[in-house]
Amino acid sequence: MQSELDESQDVDLIIRRNNYKLTADKIKQILSKVLNDPSKSYRRWIWELMQNAKDVPNKKFNRVSIQVILKEDELIFKHNGDPFMMGNITGLIQQVSSKASDSSNDEVTGKFGTGFISTHLLSDIIKVNGIVDYKNTHRSFEVLLDRAGRTSEELLPKIETALERIRKIEDEEICPIVNNYPDTRIEESYDTAFTYRLTSTEKQKAARAGIEDLIHTLPVTLVNIPKIKRVEVINELSNTRITYECSDVEVIEQIRKVKVDITGGEIPERLFVVYKAKGVFLISEVNDFEELGLIDSLVNNPICTGIFH
C-alpha cells in the first residue's frame, strides 16, 4: 500500500509513464493505418528505408552504400553510414523524427519519422543492429522494435524494454566496445542493419513486391539521389546478385552526365543526362554522351523530379 502511494507521488515516474503512453498511442495510431490498408505500403517500405539511409552522413567515404538481402523468410536492409548517436536510437524506438518541425532544410527527409512505421508491414518485430558513438566511445548494439501489440497497453512494456536496454549502453555485455572503429571501418562494412522476419505469405509477398519495384527503378533513383553511391541487391530466391553504382562523368553548370554501372544485370551500364533548374530535375536516359541520343523508353517520358534530393 505504501509502495503504491509512493509511486502515485513520484513525479518523475509519472512523467516517464506518460511519455511512454504518448509514444505507444502514436505508434498504435499509425500502425493501424498501415495494417488496415496494407496495399498502400506494399512498395512504400523499401523507399522509406532508402530515404532513411540517404539521410545518414558518411564522413569517411562521403556517400552511403546499401545492401539488401532477400531470403525466403527474412529481409535484411544494411548500409554503411556513420554510427548512430544516442538520440537516433531513442528516436527510432519512440518513433520520433530527427527533422525539426520548423526545419526548412529540404535535404533532410527526417530519419525514422512516421513513414518508417510502414516497414512494419513486413514484420511486427524489427531487429536493429549498429554502432553507436557514445561519449566518444564506439559500441555495438542490438535492439528490438517490437510492435506486435495492437493496443497501447500491449505496446507499452515493449517500448519500455527497448529503452531500458539502451539505458545500459555502458554495460560491456550488452553493448561491447568496438576498438579503433574509425580506423578499422571499411566501405564494405555494412554495420547498420534492419532485419525483418517474414512470417507469413502476405509478408513475403510484400517483400518481393518492394524488391521488384526497387530493381525496376534503381538506376533512375540513384541518379536522383546523389548521396547514395551504391546499392547491392542479393535475392536468394532467384539466386541473383546485382550491384548498381552511380558516378558523375561530367558536371557543367546545370547539367550532369551520370553513369550507372550494373554488375550482374542484363545491361552493364546506363547513361543519363540531368538538367537542374530552380529545384526541378529533368532526367533523360541516353545511349551515349557524344550524340546524346535518347533511349526510346524515355523519349516521350523524361523524368521530372525533385523529391529525394
Automatic annotation (TrEMBL):
SUPFAM superfamilies noted in UniProt: ATPase domain of HSP90 chaperone/DNA topoisomerase II/histidine kinase (SSF55874)
InterPro entries: HATPase_C_sf
Domain of life: Bacteria
NCBIfam families to which the protein is assigned, alphabetical: P_loop_sacsin
The protein's name in its UniProt record: Histidine kinase/HSP90-like ATPase domain-containing protein
Species, as recorded: Mucilaginibacter pedocola
